[in-house]
Amino acid sequence: MSIVRLIEGPVGAGKSTYAAALAARTGGVHIALDAWFASLFSPDRPAGDFIPWYVERKERLVELIWTHAQAILASGTDVILELGLIQREPRRQFCRRVLDSGFGLLMVELDAPRELRRARVRRRNEERGATFSMVVPEAIFELASDRWEPSDELERETYAVEQVCTVSGDCGQG
Fold first, then answer.
1. Which of 18, 66, 111, 142 has the highest count of CB atoms within 10 angstroms of its CB?
2. Residue range(s) defining the domain that contains residue 93
C-alpha cells in the first residue's frame, strides 16, 4: 500500500530539507505547497492585507495537490506532502481523507526552538538556496509561529505521528 508521509511543523523547523532527504532515501515524490504556491500565485499577491487572499488560494491548492498525490499513490509510489497544515483541525481533516481513501499515513512533525527557526528563515530569505520558495517576512514568521498547533494526545493516538527535533536539545519552545 502506498503511503502518504505528511511533513508538518512550524515555519523554519526544517520541513523542506527533511522532506527532500526523505524523498531521496525512499524514492517517494515530494510535493511542497510553498513551491507550487510561489509559482502559481506569488506574482499576483496584493500589497495590502493578503491573508484572506492567501487562505483562499491555499485551500484550492491543497485540493489540487491531493488530487495529484492520489494519482501518484495509485501508481504505487509514496508521496511526501509538505502542506503547511499548522492548525490541528485542518490537519486532522486531511489525515482522515488520506485514510478514508485507503492509503497509509505517517505524519512527521518537526520542531526546533523559535529563535533557531527565526534565524533559519532569515538566512533562507537572504541566501535563497535549495529550500527557498518565497520570502517570509518577520511579521509572517511570527504570525505563523503563533498559530502553529503541535499535535496533541488525540492526534497522536488517532494517527501515526513521528516527532522529530531538527536540533539537539529542547524543541518544546513553539
1. 111
2. 23-165
